[in-house]
Amino acid sequence: MSMVLPGVVGFKLSGKLLDGVTATDLVLTVTQILRKHGVVGKFVEFYGAGVGEISLADRATIANMSPEYGATMGFFPVDKVTLQYLKLTGRSDETVSMIEAYLRANNMFVDYSEPQQERVYSSYLHLDLGDVVPCVSGPKRPHDRVPLKDMKDDWHSCLDSKVGFKGFAVPKETQEKVVKFLFKGEEPAELKHGSVVIAAITSCTNTSNPSVMLGAGLVAKKACELGLKVKPWVKTSLAPGSGVATKYLQESGLQKYLNEQGFNIVGYGCTTCIGNSGDLEKTVGDAITENDIVAAAVLSGNRNFEGRVHPLTRANYLASPPLVVAYAIAGTVNIDFDKEPIGVSKDGKDVYFRDIWPSNEEVAEVVQNNVLPEMFKSTYKAITTGNPVWNELAVAAEKLYSWDPTSTYIHEPPYFEGMTMDPPGPHGVKDAYCLLNFGNSITTDHISPAGSINRDSPAAKYLMERGVDSRQFNSYGSRRGNDEIMARGTFANIRILNKLLNGEVGPKTIHIPSGEKLTVFDAAMKYKSAGQDTIILAGDEYGSGSSRDWAAKGPMLLGVKAVIAKSFERIHRSNLVGMGIVPLCFKSGEDADTLGLTGHERYTIDLPSSVSDLRPGQDITVKTDTGKQFTCTVRFDTEVELAYFNHGGILQYVIRQLAAKQ
What we know:
Layout: E1 8-14, H1 23-37, E2 43-47, H2 56-63, H3 66-69, E3 73-75, H4 80-88, H5 93-105, E4 123-128, E5 135-137, E6 145-147, H6 151-160, E7 179-183, E8 187-191, E9 196-201, H7 210-226, E10 235-238, H8 243-251, H9 255-260, H10 282-291, E11 296-299, E12 315-318, H11 321-330, E13 343-344, E14 350-351, H12 353-356, H13 360-370, H14 373-383, H15 388-391, E15 429-437, H16 444-447, H17 458-465, H18 483-489, E16 508-511, E17 516-519, H19 520-529, E18 534-537, H20 550-557, E19 560-565, H21 570-578, E20 582-586, E21 602-605, E22 619-624, E23 629-634, H22 639-646, H23 650-661
Parallel strand pairs: 1-2, 1-4, 2-3, 9-10, 9-11, 11-12, 15-18, 18-19, 19-20
Antiparallel strand pairs: 5-6, 7-8, 13-14, 15-21, 16-17, 20-23, 21-22, 22-23
Helix pairs in contact: 1-2, 7-11, 7-13, 17-18, 18-20, 20-21, 22-23
């Protein structure tokens, strides 16, 4: 085994959460702290007496955010809370006892009621749970946390600030404009900057956490009893992370109140958090686009990167499920929940946030009475039997998959075309053009195809040429088995900022030889057809966010041979190597700007012709046709990664290894 041993960050938790603070508030706080500390490529171990004060579901919610805070993993040692969860979810007493005995025998079990041994970590962090306050994160990144009490001021700051992670550059004179329209052509409606048009209880972990799910139900119940109602032009949805969540929402009687507020169950799995919310009602969409409204989405997902949630919501805030309901009722993110009413009751009185927010005791009681072991047992038992629709699918008897050349969903990819049993060896880059020149924090959401397929995109053109109506485009996620569509959707994010376009936002670039402004896909194909290599320039945290294979496969299909960045997110860097793309890092203190690189140069990267002459972390020289040259570190971090690169990628490496054993 060849691997880089990770540093382990010790994150000590003490105290306990205050009343009214949710697991999501804790998660967003932890994410901000860890992203600021810098944990890319590291493990994070949570320890301390405070860990014993949070539920297993809360711990899972924190651990599941590891891609957002950049760590390889977030880890909670096993303790009594873990064992209680195993029992709750249907494991036998015998099994649980065996697990406890094994872990204790190996000094891997933690009992927070006993004196704790001091552990040695690579670095240390501490959070008093009593310091966590209700919050959201946004409007464009998961680690840009905003305490609820500061939300209104922060929103106005975002309107004022130049376009960026915390800015929309809305002129002062238009910030208060009101757009009146007829919803569905019938009902009087209005939108302003900050109006909520999407409110979604979504994401696998948040929506498998009983405390926040039932908390959302209690908020909906209190709102219904006071006569509050979500406006019909707010697109609401509820996608539980488990069938168990549906059962305890129904058992508690709270699902009916969520239904009354529009949070009906739409399905299970990835929904709004990956851009699968579907279109906004036409009159709403038209009001936004025709008046340049900065509309908002509030969702309980993990990720809110630009262009991910919906093309028409420029502001996207992560929040707990109960907060999602509250913001849906308020109808705007431009509100101070402490001072301003969120609505008017049926008897004409102002209703404030505090009037609908449940106490921790209320939430704990409904969890205790309605989250039952039998729910987990019956749900998990049904998984093994499948469902009638799935079970009735016809399966061919052949061992080899029979490709359908007419399918627009599944297409035979070109990864093995022209492949021989002999590895091609390392490849350098000769006189490559810069396909894209990026700044900091380009995420896998900017790179890989995600969400809906824009009707003006190369992917849409491909589908229409094959007789697919726009109503049947579906999402990139549903068509991820078709490399032709996914290649066309790579770098197709509508909010992507490419320096070659001099401030223009969108999925286009400059074809350097001709000076034409083209879609990224069309420019890449023009380079490929001329036999010209391409590279990408980038800043810090290139490839941050969730780990996506298509964020590496897409650039490879576009002909990208190397990416030169200030820093990479761990998984994306590894995935680039796996697809045969060379990851290089500028030297400390240097980047494209400090070196005076515009992206209009041609780049040559000479690598040894034999892999035996390469070593992990080796420095090489990058030369340009303008005479500038600079030193970079080649980010092959292990001998195994060098082997992948020697074979042209991990797929070719595996195939050759398997074939050699036959």
